[in-house]
Amino acid sequence: MRCASRPSRAGDTGAGRRLARAFAIGVALTVAAVCSAHAQILPAPSPTPTPGITIISSEISANAAVSNLGSSFLERLGNQATNGANRLGRTNPGGGGASEAAEAPKVRAWGEVYGISATTNRQGDFAGDRRTTQGGVVGVGATFAPGFSVGFSVDQSRSNIDVPLAFQTATLNLTQIGGNFSIDKGPWTVAGAIVHGFGQISSLRDTGGGVTGFASANYNAVIDGGLIELDYYWTQNQSRVVPKVAFEYVRSSTDAFQELGNPFFLVSATGATAERARILAGAEIGHYFIIDRKILDLSAYGKFIDNVHQSFGAVTVSIPGFQSISVQGIGESRYGADAGAAASFGLSNNFRLYAHYDAKFRAQYQSHQGTVGLELRW
Questions:
Q1: Dihedral sign computed on CA atoms, order 140, 175, 137, 308
Q2: How far apart are CA 3 and CA 272, in angstroms?
Q3: What are the residues whose beta carbons fall under 8 Å from the beta carbon of 338, sequence distance 6 or more?
Q4: With contact defined as beta carbons under 8 Å apart, do 252 and 66 qualify?
Q5: Rounded CA gap, 172 and 134, in Å?
Q6: How remote is the C-alpha of 207 from its chain's centroid?
Q7: For 209-236, what is each residue's pLDDT tens digit?
Q8: In angstroms, rounded to a whole number, what is the distance separating the alpha carbons of residues 103 and 378?
Q9: In angstroms, rounded to a whole number, what is the distance separating the alpha carbons of residues 58 and 70?
Q10: pTM here?
Q11: Could you point out which of 38, 132, 201, 343 has its C-alpha 20 to 30 Å from the C-alpha of 82?
């Protein structure tokens, strides 16, 4: 009986082993499938450095922001010298219905606040950015002779820069000092402006090193620029058309920096420089209304932009574990357009409120700016 029963037990044992092996394989495949599906819904791992421009996207973005803020301030100074509301005040200093023989105010002062929202699309290895800027301007101007005026202005702004695809942020605090002048000769106006600015950039980058895996850097920025503009002022009754052409040049630079933080993928970079020269051609149209001896002036403008020269110095980036590399900055497209509108309300010959909207459109870049201000004359 024992001998007869052993084969049966052996057969049972072999079948059990095969069943256990099949069960184990099934469990392994099931676990692998669950892990694979779970891995697909897990958040992406923390960022790690890439040997390219991506790792210094915030520096490239900050340098571009300095250039664009310099251009914006230059154009606002040019507009202060030549816009229709100012010229309207010089043409008819006493306001609606007043005699043009009345003496015009010789000195004016203004203050304004503004906000800017800008985006740059992803370009090659550059991760793209979003920027918001808040700032304020104060200025004073004087008329030294009929048709000849000069002004002086200070602009203080703070920009927040976000580069989400590269896990980087930065802030830019920029102070700009500018001067402008205008010369009127009949319907012609020649105006010019110069700007010098300086600021500090503070950047923060996620290195992927866990809770302490953030690298920070602090470095300086400088902007210099100039603008010359020629306008022709054509008026009919209370309307005007003002064709304009201008040439603008700006040069910005940022210092070299060494990141600080937990010693986990900290990088260093040389300074960045950028130059841009461009031609702006377009026209302003406007009309003013006389309301109880007060002047409401409405206007709009459009400009065609030709960036005839753009130059970006190479930046050398040193990344631990990688060979040092040189990368280029980003620029605007060759052609673009600016557009905007303004409203001015002269409560008296000495007091004016105004608001502006200005937009810039490029192939990979857009910005929108809103400004409100007041002007006193005496």
A1: positive
A2: 91
A3: 75, 280, 282, 301, 302, 303, 305, 358, 359, 360, 361
A4: yes
A5: 11
A6: 25
A7: 665 678 899 999 999 999 999 999 999 9
A8: 10
A9: 18
A10: 0.81
A11: 132
